Amino acid sequence: MKKQFGINVGAGYEEPYDRLISYIRQAGFDACFTPWNEDSPVEEWAECIAKEGLIYQSIHAPFHRIYDLWEDAGEAGERRLALLFACLRDCKRAGVPIMVTHPIIGMERHTPTELGVRRFAALVEEAERLGVCVALENLEGEEYLALLMERLGKSSMVGFCWDTGHELCYNNGKDMLALYGKKLVATHLNDNMGRTDPTVNITWHDDAHMLPLDGIADWAGIMHRLRRERYDGILTFELKRCNNPGRHTNDAYEQMSAPEFYCNAYERACRVAALANE
């Protein structure tokens, strides 16, 4: 059976979502995912995605100041939690089975708290009630993901979203799939150049979200690891057109139209998937 491919809507283009979704379908993709904010018309997007014959694979929850969940016992922390609850309910409303969320953001943060665990536990309880899976993504601050998986990972509504680019530049190439592959429910496949300067602190500037095979990721190894975990879900790519500050990794994409970018992405997806047979 043909492998199914998905990709993010947007990727740095500001065209209307209905048009971008059409480009994604025309490029050959089977699925897509969207970001989310409080004003996101997810039911409209779901209708458009379905009209194009695509699968609405997941919604990516907002992660700005998500450290407040762990560090702020007052209004700021409760506000972050309320946003995740609202996103989760929008997933249910739009018929989207997975909400991807960052456990933490911030390179200098390495001290998870019981406060954060309690808040994520409340989120998981709501996810169980709604039947929407909360997929925790590998980021910097691996301690936060480890603790949440240890304490909450027994729930069938807690999964793992494997970001290959984050593994390369944030996790220093550690095999995150070996740790959490049994909970794998989603992928964010992308490439980068790793830590471009190991003498300085890790920054998000190295998280380039390049097209596969344009960076230094071992794509044959990535496909081997997915086979090792017997992952048979959608191969979802999270890519972007634009450069990060002070970087030129994505120069080749910046002149591409959205249709060109998505067609190039689909071609790379096919090449990556073919490595599974080598």
Q: Identify the strand order in the major beta sheet.
A: 7-6-5-4-3-2-1-8
Number of strand elements: 8
CATH topology name, in short, is TIM Barrel
Percentage of β-strand residues: 5-15%
Broad shape:
globular
Secondary-structure arrangement, i.e. CATH architecture: Alpha-Beta Barrel
How many helical stretches?
11
CATH homologous superfamily grouping: Divalent-metal-dependent TIM barrel enzymes
Distance between the termini: 17 Å
CATH class: Alpha Beta
Radius of gyration based on Cα positions:
18 Å
Integer count of domains: 1
Fold and architecture overview:
Strands 7-6-5-4-3-2-1-8 form an 8-stranded parallel sheet. The mean pLDDT is 96. It has 11 helices and 8 strands. It has one domain: Divalent-metal-dependent TIM barrel enzymes (TIM Barrel, Alpha-Beta Barrel), CATH 3.20.20. α6 links the parallel β5 (133-137) and β6. 41% of the residues lie in helices and 13% in strands. The radius of gyration is 18 Å and the shape is globular. The two termini are 17 Å apart. α5 (114-130) crosses α6. The protein is an alpha/beta fold.
Summarize the structure.
The chain has helices spanning 17-27, 42-51, 68-71, 75-94, 114-130, 142-152, 164-169, 176-180, 219-228, 251-254, 258-274, and strands at 5-8, 31-34, 55-60, 98-101, 133-137, 158-163, 184-188, 235-237. The protein has 278 residues and is of the alpha/beta class.
